[in-house]
Amino acid sequence: MDIQNTQSQMRKGVLEFCILSIIRQGEVYPSDIVEQMKRANLHILEGTLYPLLTRLKNAGLLNYRWVESNSGPPRKYFMLTDKGLEFYGVLENTWQELADAVHALTQPQQQHSNPDENNPNSNQQNTN
Amino acid sequence: MKKVININFQGRVVPIEESAYDILKKYVESLSAFFANEDGRDEIINDIESRIAELFSETLKQGTTCITDDDVNRIIDSMGRPEDFEDEEANVKSQLGGEQKQSSQQQSYTYQSSETKKLYRDENSKVLGGVCSGIANYFGIDPLIVRILFVIFFGVAFVPYLILWIAVPSTASTIIGAQRKRLFRDPDDKLIAGVCSGLAHYFGVHVWIPRLIFLIPFISFFLRFGHWGFWDFPHFVSVSFSPGATFIYIILWIVFPEAKSSADKLEMKGEKVDLNNIKNTIQSDMEGFSKRAEEFGKDLSQKAQQFGKNISETANTHGTATVKKVGRGIGDVIVIIAKMFAYFIIGSILFAITVTLFVFGVMSAGFLPHKEFILTNGWEDVLAWGTLMLFIWVPFIGLVTWIIRRIARLKGNSKLLRSVFIALWVLGWICFIGLLASVRNDFRYSNHPEEQTVTLTNAKVNKLELRVPPHSKYYSNRSWFRLEPFENLDDDTLYIQNTKVRIVKSSSDSFQVSIVKFADGRSKKEADDIVSKINYNITQIDSILQLDRGIALTKNEKFRNQSLIITVAVPIGKKIKVDYDAGENFHVQIGSNWDDEGWDWRYYENTHEENWEHNREYIMTEKGLQRTDKLSSDEEDNSSNNAMDQFKKSKEQILREKEQKLRELQEIDKQLQDGTDSNRYHYQPEKNKKADPVKKQSATINKQLFNDFLMMRFYM
User: Fold this and answer.
1) How far is CA A52 from each of CA A69, B115, B319, B530, rounded to the nearest angstrom?
2) Residue B586 — φ and ψ, nearest 5°?
3) Based on the domain organization, do B483 and B598 belong to the same domain?
4) Following DSSP, what letter does each residue of B511-577 receive, concatenated?
5) Most confident among B45-54, B242-251, B265-274 (mean pLDDT)
6) Residue B646: what pLDDT?
7) Any chain A CB within 8 A of the CB of B48?
8) pLDDT tens digits, residue range B70-103?
9) Residue B186 in contact with residue B201, Cβ under 8 Å?
C-alpha cells in the first residue's frame, strides 16, 4: 500500500466538491480557484483544472461568461447553474455524512489509525 | 545569443525565443495528444493556451523584451505536464463518471491509455535493457521464461532486442515523469561524428564504453599476425567485422539526427522536455491505419454486398439485410487477414534481403585476402572494391537505415538520402557487371594441354604409395575461413587443389606417371604462359610417390583455373595405395575403360569409382583394381590369379547360398500356404553388398558438386 497514492486519492475524492463550493460563492476565474485552493493548502495543477471545468460545463453543471481583460485575452468566468447547485447540495450532504462518520470513527480510538485511513474512500464509494 | 521570433498566440503578438517556442509547441502538442480522446479537447487546449497567453503578457509587462526558455518552463511547470496529471486525471474521471450516472457522459470518458496494455521496458526489474521483463509483463508471464528464450536464441534475438531497446519507451518515462530520451549525435563531444557520445547519453554510460566497443575489432585487426591459438578467432573477427563496425558507425551516423537546438540536447540527455511523443506517434499511426483499413474494408464490403444482393434475389427482404451484414463482416476479416499476410511477407522479404546482403558482405570481406590471387591490379581492383562497397554494403546500409528510420519515425531529408543511395547502388551494379565481365575475360581461353611423362627413379617397384606432405601447424590453424579450391593461404602463397589423380592399367610391366596441366587466360598464349609457370613436383622415393599439396601460386601469378591431372598407370599384379591425406586432397579416379586416344581432357567427367577408398591397398588385375584385403591371404607374386579365383569362388558360394535359401523359402511357403509372412524371406545378397558403396558415392558426389560449382564460377 503506497501512502502517497492513498493520500492523493483521499484528496482527489473531494476535489470537485471543493471546486464547486468555490464557484458557488460567486463568478470565478480558474486561476483564482487555484489560488484559493492553494491558500487552503489543497494543490491542483491548472492543467488538471481546465479539463475538469470543461467536463462539468459540458455536463450542464457550470456556465461561463466572457470578461474582457487588460492583461491578455478575454477571460472565462465560471458560475453554477441550477442543476449545478442541486448537484452541489447532494455532494454537500454526502460530505457532511462522511465527515461525521470519519470523525466518529477516528476520534475515540486513535490506535486504529491505519484501517481508518482507508475507510473514507471505501465509504464514499459505497454512498455513491 | 538566441534568435527571437514573433508568434501570434491567442490573438496577441508575442516575441519569443526560438528555442522557447519549440518547447511551447511541443508542450501544446503533448497536450493535444493527451486529450485526443476527450470530447472538449479543443476547448480545453484553448483555455490552457489563453491562460498561457495571459501569463506571457504578465511576463512581458514586467519589462522583459521577450519570452525565454525559463519563462516557458516555469509556466509549463505551473500548468503541469501530461505526465504529471495523467494519474490524477484517470481518478477524477472515474469519480465524475460514477457520480453523474449519465451513461452518455460516461461514454465520452472512455479514456484509453490508462486501461489498455502497452509495451514498456521494465525499469524496475531489468537485467540489460528491461526488454525481456517488459515483454513478460505485457503477456503476463514470468520474465525468467522470456530471458531463457532470449539466451537460447541469442543469435537471432540479439538484433530485435537492440531495436526494441531503442524503440520501446521505458517505464521510467511514465512513472517518474522523465522525458523519453532520444538518440542524437552529440556535436559537443565528438571524435568523428558524435555517434558514440550520443549512444552514451542514451544508455547513460560513459562515453568511452561505446567507443571501446567500436574500437575492439580494430584493435584485434592489429593483432592479425599473432597466429597462436587464442588470437586466431579475433583475427577472423577483425577481417570480417572491422569493416562491419565501420558500417554500423556509418549507419548510425545517418540515422541519428544531430542535436542542434537546445531542446534536442535536452532530449538527448533525457532531461525534461515536455513531449508526449510516444503517445503521439502511436495515436497518429493508429488513426492513419484505421482510415486505410476502413477504405480497404469499404471496397471489399461493397463487393461482398453486391455478392449478397445477387443471393438476395432468391431470398426475402429480411434475408438481404442479414446477408449484407455478414458480407460486410467477412469483407473486413478478409481485409485484415490479407493486410497482415502482406505485411508479414514484405517484412520477411526485407529481412531476408538484409541478412543475405550482410552475409555476402562479411563473406566478401573474408574473401579479400584471396583477392590478389585472382584479380589483376588496377581496374579490377577498383571494380572489386566498388562491388563490395556499392553493390553489397550500400543497399545493406540503405535497408537498415530505412528500417530504423521507419521504426524511429524520423522525418527529414529522406528523399535526398534515397536518391543518393540509389545512385550509389547503380554505380555498384556497374562495378559488379564490369568486374564480372573483366574476370570472365581473364578466364576466356584455355591452354593446349600436353601430357608430360614424369620420369620415375624406379618404375619397377611392386607397390606405389601416393603421399602428400602433411599439413604444417601454421596452416592447419587457419581453417576459420576455408574456400575450396583454395587452401593453405600463406601471406604470399596460395595452394590450389585442382588436382586429380587417375589410376589406369599400364600396358607395360612398370609404373608410368604422367601429368597434364591446364590453365585459362585472356588469350591462348597467356594460358600457355601460365601453364608453363606451374611448378609441380612429383618425386619417387622407393615405393612412395611424393606429390605436392597443390599448385603453389604467388601474388604475381594469378589464379586462372590452374589444374592438374596426374595419371598413374599401374601394371597388372602390382599394388597401389593412395594415402589418406592425399586422397582427401585429390579426386582419385580409377578405371581402365578410358582409351587414351579418344579421351577429351576438357570434358571428362568426375566420376569416382563407387567403391574406391583412400588409404587402402589396391592391386591391378585383368579386370581392374581390387582391394588386397578382400583377397584371401595369398602370396603377392601370383595374387592376380588368386584374386580372380577368389572372386569366382565367392560368386559361386553366393549362388549356392541363394539356392539353399530358395529351397528353404519354398519349404516355408508350403508350410504357410497363405504366404502372409513372405516378406521376411525376400533375401537378396546383392542388395546388401551394394548398400555401402551407394552411401559413399552420394557423399563423394556432394563434395564433387561443390567443387564443380566453384569451378563453374571461374569458368563464367
Assistant:
1) 23, 20, 48, 90
2) -110, 155
3) yes
4) -EEEEEEE-EESSHHHHHHHHHH----EEEETTEEEE-SSEEEETTS--S--EEEEEEEE-TT-EEE
5) B45-54
6) 62
7) yes
8) 888 888 888 888 777 655 544 444 444 333 333 3
9) yes
Interface residue ranges in chain A relative to chain B, Cβ cutoff 8 Å: 8-9, 12-13, 15-16, 30-31, 45-48, 50-59, 69, 71-76, 91, 125, 128
- Do B620 and B502 fall within a single domain? yes
How far is A33 from chain B, CA to nearest CA, in Å? 13
- pLDDT tens for residues B286-297? 555 555 556 656
- When pLDDT is cut at 50, 70 and 90, the band that residue B119 belongs to is low
B61, A71: Cβ pair inside 8 Å?
A: yes
Query: Which of B171-185, B194-208, B226-240, B602-616 is least confident?
Result: B226-240
The structural domain count of chain B equals 6
The rounded distance, in Å, linking the Cα atoms of B451 and B357 is 44
CB contact under 8 A, B89 and A51: yes
Residue B184 C-alpha cell reads as 542524437
Q: Is residue B376 part of a domain?
A: yes
Tell which B residues from 148 to 177 touch A, by Cβ distance under 8 Å: none
B361 assigned to some structural domain: no
DSSP string, A36-97: HHHHTT----HHHHHHHHHHHHHTTSEEEEEE--TTSSPEEEEEE-HHHHHHHHHHHHHHHH
CA–CA separation, B375 and B395 (whole Å): 24
CA distance A108 to chain B (A): 30
pTM for this predicted structure: 0.37
- Dist. CA B317–CA B398, nearest whole Å: 57
B231, pLDDT greater than 50: no
Contacts of B83 in chain A (CB under 8 A): none
Looking at beta carbons, which residues of chain A come within 8 Å of B48? 46-47, 50
Cβ proximity of B468 and B585 under 8 Å: yes
What is the percent of chain B where pLDDT is above 70?
51
- Is a pLDDT exceeding 80 seen at residue B203? no
Identity at B105, one-letter amino acid code: Q
Lowest mean pLDDT among A45-59, B27-41, B284-298: B284-298
Residues B291, B161, single domain; the answer is no
| Domain-ending residue, one of B403, B424, B442 | B442
A13–B95: do the CB atoms touch at under 8 Å?
yes
Given B80, B99, B129, the domain boundary residue is B80
Q: Test A54 with B53 for CB contact under 8 angstroms.
A: no
Is residue B120 a contact partner of residue B170, using CB atoms and an 8 Å limit? yes
Q: Per the domain annotation, does B652 fall within a domain?
A: no
Instruction: Look up the domain containing B505 and give its range.
Output: 447-630
Task: Verify that B583 and B457 share a domain, yes or no.
Answer: yes
pLDDT digits (tens, 9 = 90+) for B456-491: 877 778 888 887 776 544 444 444 444 444 444 555
C-alpha to C-alpha distance for B565 and B545, rounded to whole angstroms: 15
pLDDT at residue A78, rounded to an integer: 92
User: Is A72 in Cβ contact with B53 (below 8 Å)?
Assistant: yes
Residue-wise pLDDT tens digits, A62-116: 988 888 887 778 888 999 999 999 999 999 999 999 899 989 988 865 555 454 4
Set of chain A residues whose Cβ sits within 8 Å of the Cβ of B99? 16, 91, 128
